[in-house]
Amino acid sequence: MRDTSVLIPPETQGRSPEAIRVEALHKSFGSLEVLKGVDLLAREGDVVAIIGGSGSGKSTLLRCINFLETPSSGRIVIGGEEVAMRTDGAPASRRQIEGIRRRLGMVFQQFNLWTHKTVLENLIEVPVHVLGTPRDQAIDRARRLLARVGLADKESQYPAFLSGGQQQRAAIARALAIEPRAMLFDEPTSALDPELVGEVLAVIRDLAAEGRTMILVTHEMKFAREVANHVVFLHNGRIEEEGPPEILFGAPRSDRLKQFLKSVD
Question: If both were cysteines, with which of 58, 97, 121, 245 could 117 make a disulfide (CB 3.0 to 4.6 Å apart)?
């Protein structure tokens, strides 16, 4: 494993420590190359929004970061620890991947709550049975998180009895229950009815205001512009343009980005 200190150029010294770094990431599904050499950096406290059209590789990139998808090649460094990968991109150590995932809270498009467990049980499952957190401590933290996302009165409910927005807020609380170093959001509002989007975005906005590190795949352009401090535009598996939101949304340079922004107005 290489010394990741070489990744930090002198001009960036003194900034917040790196939380997530991706270098030259490739991912193919058979003959289809979805990611074609993507570089991405998120420092502690950053909110990085990834935007782009359908099929651009946004979700695949996010899923490769925590190895829900196996990269074909490239480098991934989480909190200064480089993931050991074989020549085919597969992780060399399953134990290392399990440790990495404990630092990354993942929120999916379709909530992915356990339907046979109550909301509270969903939140304490991993802390108690995977991380070894004492049950009383896990329950106390879960209740505080549910109150934080406006679901204090829903802990005994099953997911089927919640609205889509409530389910996604419960999913965010579940991701927070492992006390992650960074949060990954894969289009968290795409499965919601329009009237429920705002309640989920409000929770994410509060997390950003706390200074929590987040990488957010989203199709909510206004939200990305207001909340992110760095925006990445992915097109056909490559980063076409990236930078501060005021530049990407206010003065885009790429013709493809200009066209994309017109299409989502």
Answer: 121
